[in-house]
Design goal:
Chain B: GO terms for molecular function: protein kinase activator activity. The complex is a heterodimer of chains A (about 110) and B (about 140). By secondary structure, chain A is of the alpha/beta class. Chain A contains 4 helices and 5 strands, in the order βαββαββαα. Chain A has a single domain, classed as Rossmann fold (3-Layer(aba) Sandwich). The two termini of chain A are about 20 Å apart. With about 140 residues, chain B is of the alpha/beta class. Chain B has a single domain, classed as Mannitol-specific EII, Chain A (3-Layer(aba) Sandwich). The chains are: A alpha/beta (about 110), B alpha/beta (about 140). The interface between A and B is medium-sized, with 23 and 25 residues.
Amino acid sequence: MNIVGIAACTVGIAHTYIAQEKLENAAKKAGHEIAIETQGTIGTENELTAEQIADAHVVILAIDVKISNRERFEGKRIIEVPTEVAVKSPNKLIEKVEKIFEQSNQEREGK
Amino acid sequence: MNDNSFYQVYFNCKLETKEEVHNFISNIVCQNNSSIKEEIVNQLIRREEAGSTLIAEHVMLPHIESDHVKKSQIIFIRLAKPIVTWDYQIEDICLLIVLLLKRNESEEIKKKISLFTRTLADEEYLNRLLNSKERYNFEQEIITI
């Protein structure tokens, strides 16, 4: 599965970067491709490319604040959680993403 | 650990409640002005209300950005005894890693702090800090950027 996402927290110095690390590690461990953009106090880092977004099956938004350029994900399957979910339970979050992805695939095949 | 004031360690700190921790942090920011100290405490409380700063079992990451912070710092507070009840959800806190960010801090320092916070995603690293019983060992474990 290809995953892209954004991490952004209130102060933009702590949870943003821990969430990014944890999501990337959890997704890679589960065998997925992942790229997480951070929108923190430094500004935008690891900015997602149009190609990465186009290829993504799922978008994870681990955010506590309004983010920039959200419209890039229009039409994509979006899973939005507070950053603390990504920080505390990244593996469970990736499992949930996998389930949602499988369910929507089954629904699509059933049509 | 080098004598580097960017990182500060308070080992075996005898703080017993969340309030004592907040007061301790506010004292680090400002020792003399009670209204500034109150503001710092309120900022810490507001940050926690916005979302838990618990980053792993037994470890919290209080952090603020403030005009009153004169020098950005990373502060390790290793408690002498765990705080059994932090609030109605969080218990058994042994280690606090406090980020104090000066308002309008330079890009360079912000990047340094963000690289440091990324290291906190490693639970084995946090466990090593939690399991260090002596100040020297604790300081040796700290990953400085």
